[in-house]
Structures are given as C-alpha cells and as structure tokens.
Amino acid sequence: xxxxxxxxxxxxxxxxxxxxxxxxxxxxxxxxxxxxxxxxxxxxxxxxxxxxxxxxxxxxxxxxxxxxxxxxxxxxxxxxxxxxxxxxxxxxxxxxxxxx
Length: 100
Prior knowledge:
Distance between the termini: 46 Å
Largest sheet: 3 strands, antiparallel
Structural class: mainly beta
Shape: elongated
Number of helices: 1
Strand content: 15-25%
Helix content: under 10%
Oligomer: single chain
Radius of gyration: 25 Å
Strand order of the largest sheet: 5-6-7
C-alpha cells in the first residue's frame, strides 16, 4: 500500500517519514519522486475515527471486573471490561491469586 502517487508520473510513492518528517499537518512538505526524480509538495491531513461501546456500568449496572495479568502477582488488580475502572482485589481474591 502506498501513501500517495507522484503528481508528475503517477508512480506509487511512500512518504519518507525519517525523523518524523511529513507528519505535521497544515504545512507544505517537499519530497522527490523515486521514479521521475521530480520534486513535488504535499500536505498531511489527520483523520480521527471513533468507535463506541456500551458501558452499562456507567449507567447503574455492576462493573464487569476481570483479573489483570500482572507480575509479580502481589500487584494484581481487577479492571472493568467496559470502562477500564480498576480496583484492588478483596482479601479472599488476594489469597487465591497468591496461591495460583
């Protein structure tokens, strides 16, 4: 998959992002085409894409806590699968974790 095409020869072109080049938006950048060796300019646009999820626990339902995978085990916490809220294990949960 290429980033763009050269405006002169239409060759598929990868933008050279060495040292972060070409990421700054609202700025005119320059690059030479590898195929026709002509210099062209380009701008960068950033698009945000959002994905939504139900979080019933933020609407009065119980959190769905799941044990995190942590090493060493004594630092294990529980994290809600829907909102990422964290909590420490209960005394009983801690004993179970340490005996695993």
